[in-house]
Amino acid sequence: MTTISENSTAPAAPEPAVATGLIGFVPVGIARALTLGGGILSVASCFTAWTWTARFPGDLTFYGSPGGLQMQVLVTGLLTTLFALSSYGVKGTRWLTPAGADAALKLAALANFAIAWFTVGAISITLGGPVNLEPGGAIVALASLLALLGALALPFERPKVLPVDPEDTGWDQFKHRAGNGWDSFKAAFATGPVRRLPSMHSSVEILIITGILAVALGVFTYGIGTEYDELFLGFLITAGLGFAAVNKSGLMQQAAQLTKKHQNLSIAGAFTAAALFPFTQTDDQYATLGVYILIFATVALGLNIVVGLAGLLDLGYVAFLGVGAYAAALVSGAPTSPFGVHLPFWAAILVGAGASLVFGVLIGAPTLRLRGDYLAIVTLGFGEIFRIAVMNTDGTSGPDITNGSNGIASIPNLNILGFDFGAEHVIAGFTIGRFANYFFLMLLIMAVVVLVFRRSGNSRIGRAWVAIREDETAALAMGINGFRVKLIAFALGASLAGLAGTVQAHVTYTVTPEQYLFAGPIPPNSAFLLAAVVLGGMGTMSGPLVGASLLFLIPNKLQFMGEYQLLAFGVALILLMRFRPEGMIANRRNQLEFHEKDETPATLAKAGA
């Protein structure tokens, strides 16, 4: 008789991991209902009065008509409600979350909570306490809080973490627990793979792209037209967290798939949407910001060739913008110009771009054999030498060319084929002012720069730039003429900056040395230009354009912060570089390099895309 003995000390099979939420005491069903109910209640509260007096900007005293910050709470509340319905699997809403609903729902609820409590706090501070809130203000505060608590209680699969070593010091144990907590927090917002787009007719895909561009135009127009400080700060909160929620839902990745499939059409549509911006304005006030943003973005895209594609750290790039502006101003008929020459615009623009090209070659030829920090120091010196040189060519310290610190003033408006850019014009019943005229001209120049960037980035010379950027020694060993390739990048980037500088001289009426500093509170300057390229995404076409738009608009709107403006701006950049080091729109290589331990993204942008 055979006896089979059992080992009672054998380890039992590990129990399956139980998915729990960041807030574990709320049941899943109640948490999801809280989130949905809080979203619906937030939307409904936007149609009630939040304060009794119109002294708070936006006049939130009306019933049935949301205004001011209420519109932003309405958007985040709708986003929370729709994502909550999608998490229930309601028919007709699943397409909203192709990467899963819960992570997007948490960020949408966070956005709703942040903007609602910001508004309630602003009302209390401005009017002297929460006693000035009407019932609608209290309702939106409570509803957004309940929605956030419910969203944070939604279950997620927690990552496996190593236990704390009891022999470690107290500080090491604290760091270990903090690291485990941070890993769990990140896992709460993790998403699954994005579902592929279903096959659709090309006309439907083009219609969707049109809708995306219309939304982008609407968001930009709303942001640039914010009339008071609280509204713009609320816009930053809503746009930042709202886009993060949409990105987590997977809609951004699917939109990227569509625009990549119809790339040329998407670019043409983007320029068409931008051209419609002046027609959305009732006066020239915000067209002024628009044309300055285009100038800044064009120069940033030129710097992207030097830094993003060729990997050359240029800290004096704004000097090439100044060379183009000064060269054009000297030959455009300004009364303070010592030359007394008034060339037509096509000739002045060639002079500006050509002068920057020559300076790019003259500076690059003796210095581009340097690498890294040494090249950065040389370019920084060139930027300062240019500024000091134009300061001293005033007829006293040097030859009378640039009129010294007074600059070249009274630069006349452009007149191309009888079209006076300084006068108002009526187009299709819309009155187009001076800055709108220059906006359209700058849009055409940006189209040229985008074309140059795309063609050069996808060419043989563009691939040589990328090879030099990644490993110059290996590129030289493979037969690439590193010096010639880098000089071409340097000269091309300089000429594109000079192209933008030509228009800048006519837009600002005056060019002075103080406009071309290495760093300052208001762009364009070399530090902001470099930040725009890094922030937007080096090596991509749309990244620097988005980065430049944000870096020009935000400092302009945050002037009420005074001396703390640069501090807040610096903290924001540090946080962004910590959590999104590859930039907002990253290319394939940077995305993989900075997220080696993460899952490979479903949709990656390539250089020039």
Automatic annotation (TrEMBL):
The keyword Secreted does not apply. Keywords: Cell membrane, Membrane, Transmembrane, Transmembrane helix. The chain crosses the membrane at residues 33-53, 73-91, 103-125, 137-156, 204-225, 231-251, 263-280, 286-310, 317-337, 343-365, 372-390, 435-453, 487-507, 527-554. It is a multi-pass membrane protein. The keyword tRNA-binding does not apply. Pfam families: BPD_transp_2. It is found in: Cell membrane. InterPro entries: ABC_transp_permease (IPR001851), LivM-like (IPR043428). It comes from the Bacteria. PANTHER family: HIGH-AFFINITY BRANCHED-CHAIN AMINO ACID TRANSPORT PROTEIN BRAE (PTHR30482:SF10), HIGH-AFFINITY BRANCHED-CHAIN AMINO ACID TRANSPORT SYSTEM PERMEASE (PTHR30482). This is Branched-chain amino acid ABC transporter permease. It comes from Streptomyces tanashiensis.
